[in-house]
Amino acid sequence: MKLLTLPGLYNSGPQHWQSLWETSLPNIERVQQENWDQPDLDLWMANLSSHIDTCKEDVILVAHSLGCALAVHWISSLKTSALHVKQVKGLFLVAPPDVGLNTFPAVSFSPMPEIRLPVASMLIASGNDPWCDVALSRHWAHCWGSEFHFLGAKGHINSESGLGNWEQGQIWLQKLMCTE
Q1: Whose CA is closest to 60, among 12, 19, 28?
Q2: Is the pLDDT of residue 1 over 60?
Q3: Separation CA 41–CA 147 (nearest Å)
Q4: What string of DSSP letters covers 25-51?
Q5: Whole-number mean pLDDT of the chain?
Q6: In what order do the strands lie in the sheet containing 28-30?
Q7: pLDDT value of residue 79
Q8: Could you tell me the pTM of the whole model?
Q9: In which element (H, E) is residue 178 found?
């Protein structure tokens, strides 16, 4: 099983749990985007499709923030082939942002799809995320058919949250990998 990390806006820095997982977990790599600072949904989706095309094994998308919006748009898009959906076995969605906020800097990602996802998924949310109210995260989890986990008050579940290698996240990811 291949794990592909999908960072959000501005990429994930060296102390972010995604970056730490990339140095400690087997068979994991980051999907790089050409422009982390000015994201464009169509370009990011095309890049993700291209990256998955090179994978020879089944995939779990491990997404944070805007990476969650990318994953959900991608898996629910008509542009995504049936072959891709068959290859991607799950979505691990951490701190999806409210892409509909007037202040959100990636307008091409709005609105967030609210359809049942065709793969297993897990959504992890924080009670004090500045980019998304936990009630909206719960709503999306319900719409998507995602297993929901509330992490408590951990901000945007990023480097500033102090999670380090985030062992609880790895346990949840392993559970998702076993449900596919």
Answers
A1: 28
A2: yes
A3: 25
A4: SSSEEE---S-SSS--HHHHHHHHHHH
A5: 93
A6: 28-30, 2-6, 59-64, 88-94, 120-125, 147-150
A7: 53
A8: 0.95
A9: helix 167-179
- Tell me the Cα Rg of the chain: 15
Phi, psi values for residue 14, rounded to 5°: -65, -25
d(CA 98, CA 109) in angstroms, rounded, equals 10
Band (pLDDT 50/70/90 cuts) for residue 82 is low
**pLDDT of 124-158, one tens digit each?**
999 999 999 999 999 999 999 999 999 999 999 99
β-pair partners for 179: none
**If phi over 0 gives left and psi between -120 and 50 gives alpha, with beta otherwise, what is residue 129?**
beta
**Which single residue is written with the structure tokens 């980051």?**
30
Cα 59 to chain centroid distance, Å, stands at: 13
Are residues 49 and 24 in contact, defined by beta-carbon separation less than 8 angstroms?
Answer: no
Residue 94 pairs with which residues in a beta bridge? Answer: 64, 124
